[in-house]
Amino acid sequence: xxxxxxxxxxxxxxxxxxxxxxxxxxxxxxxxxxxxxxxxxxxxxxxxxxxxxxxxxxxxxxxxxxxxxxxxxxxxxxxxxxxxxxxxxxxxxxxxxxxxxxxxxxxxxxxxxxxxxxxxxxxxxxxxxxxxxxxxxxxxxxxxxxxxxxxxxxxxxxxxxxxxxxxxxxxxxxxxxxxxxxxxxxxxxxxxxxxxxxxxxxxxxxxxxxxxxxxxxxxxxxxxxxxxxxxxxxxxxxxxxxxxxxxxxxxxxxxxxxxxxxxxxxxxxxxxxxxxxxxxxxxxxxxx
Length: 288
Prior knowledge:
By secondary structure, this protein is an alpha/beta fold. About 50% of the residues lie in helices and about 10% in strands.
């Protein structure tokens, strides 16, 4: 028998919706299990996002729960659909941590990625030399082979900007990120020039909160907000910490992070002014 599917944000969201629909319809887990020719444990795994729901199973459950609204049905069907764009990294699935697989899925499916960074340039915008310096600073002691693998992998992730439907990307950085000479002046100068080159509003927008900005928005640290279009229509927040990441999916929590991001953007320089600051700092580094 196959292994239960790995949890993803969309499967957790689907599971929560199916449980709410089942309870609203006053249907027991046993009754739901009979409708899909399974058992109670399978319903439990599906409702917690630990097992995939097939289209036939979904149709049976929605019929049992009396869901007739076509728009809601289409939304749930979209949540249940597999994201076909994830396949490029599956060959390495056995050596990637679960939270990193989640990140790859979120990146692959997102229509918009908005990130606020306080310590480093976002991975999707890093040069190879900068990425090498950052990953070398990981708490893990990496061999040369593993370091090369993770650097190559980080650069490969940037291919999402070359796909058929690349996400809109918005990065807000504190000026300290630009001033920190990761890898040394030469590496950092090249990284800043790269940021200037890839900045193409509204497709890729980079904005900087300068040291001179007097207003201050408390965030607790860096975060990434992934947004999805209709019919998915939901957001996921990624919050990194030393040993991993948290994924926050509740609507109220996502709305709070959207408000914080909007406040940060309001205090940042415009894209044009940010490019001018990037160029100025790069020139300073190149003179060293």
